[in-house]
Amino acid sequence: MTADLVYVVAGASLLLAAVLPELLGSRAVSAPIVLVGVGLLLGLTPLPDGLPLDPQANRAVIEHVTELTVIVSLMGVGLALDRPLQPRRPESWRAWSPTWRLLLVAMPLCIGGVALLGWWAGLAPAAALLLGAALAPTDPVLASDVQVGGPQTGDHEVEESDEVRFTLTSEAGLNDGLAFPFVYAAILAATVGSVSDWWLEWLGWYLVGKVVVGVLVGGAVGWTLAHVAFRSRTAALRVADRGEALVAIAALVAAYGLGEVCGGYGFLSVFACAMTFRSAERTHDYHAAMHDVVERLERLLTLFVLLVLGIALTRGLLESLDWRGVAIGLGLLLVVRPLAGRLALIGGPAPARAGHLTGPERWAAAFFGIRGVGSLYYLAYAAGESDVLADDWLWSTIGFTVVASVLLHGILATPVLRRLEAAA
């Protein structure tokens, strides 16, 4: 019965994935809102108890499904970005200035702010830190309404001109991997104990070493696959010539797997792979074909996760939610992230230069820090490493925050960005 129900939900997700984007169009109601709503309604029906909804009993399933969803989304994000990152050119780094500010200033502030709120709510330090780390990143999966639309190729190639969309897209591509060191800090605090026993290892390996390994491995995979796809002397291997877009799936799986095997952060490996591949033959239409394949798979996985999440909300996921969890979730979305993001975006490149944001654009980039599937993955992963972190209250609070973000940001994204674009 369980397998049959999973097929039913997967089939419904596939159907909705095909019709919702066109059906909703430019309305101020996003597909994630509809999917969560449909899930809520299904959860209120006499649906047999067979779906794997209990996060404690099905932690491993949740971890792997959300993990796959995130890495597929990261591949799509990396392929969608038209603005190159050229390490040897200072102006290229400056064009990414808002991204670095959100990563290096806003995200640590969000982690610290939510961790303090969690500690105030009575959580153990390790659990409070995990709550902050899991809820800090802007999610690449649910942020499609505020991200760039896809790669511009052929005669239409242009550099990213919508700074808000570029900033949020690039931030989402990088911060999932960069939140992992703080998830590991929570795990070490829960399993090892005193900070003095693990801080040096955390600083050298988890904060620096695994980041470097992940980026280097992903870059190597992307460069190798791009060389084969575009420049191989063997015609059968030049898949770009015949538009074999399934290479995108092979690339993301290979980059993630190899990054993890080598000890790095696989999320960063996937994004680095996509960015490196995108830098090769930038005007080639093959990039758009690869992005289309990844986008379709991402849409299916995302809608499946959201449909199940909606069902879970009315089948016990929020049983442990109390006013403290509601206060922390809404406090993050309405106060902590907007203020941390706005503080991080003070200054920046001069007008008429890439990376410059106007005042309203800075507030928009600060506000639309969407929380989503990545938060569920981090909690599921950490819960598998320590029973201290497998707390029902954490599941309820993070589940509530994700749904609140889906509703709040999903309703506001279209009208806010449309207004910014009209004022540009």
From TrEMBL:
Its main location: membrane. The chain crosses the membrane at residues 6-24, 31-48, 60-81, 102-121, 178-200, 207-226, 246-277, 297-317, 323-343, 363-381, 393-417. It is a multi-pass membrane protein. Keywords: Antiport, Ion transport, Membrane, Transmembrane, Transmembrane helix, Transport. It comes from the Bacteria. It is found in: Cell membrane. InterPro entries: Cation/H_exchanger_TM. Residues 14-418 form the Cation/H+ exchanger transmembrane domain. Signal peptide: none annotated. This is Cation:proton antiporter. It comes from Nocardioides bigeumensis. The lineage of its organism: Bacteria, Bacillati, Actinomycetota, Actinomycetes, Propionibacteriales.
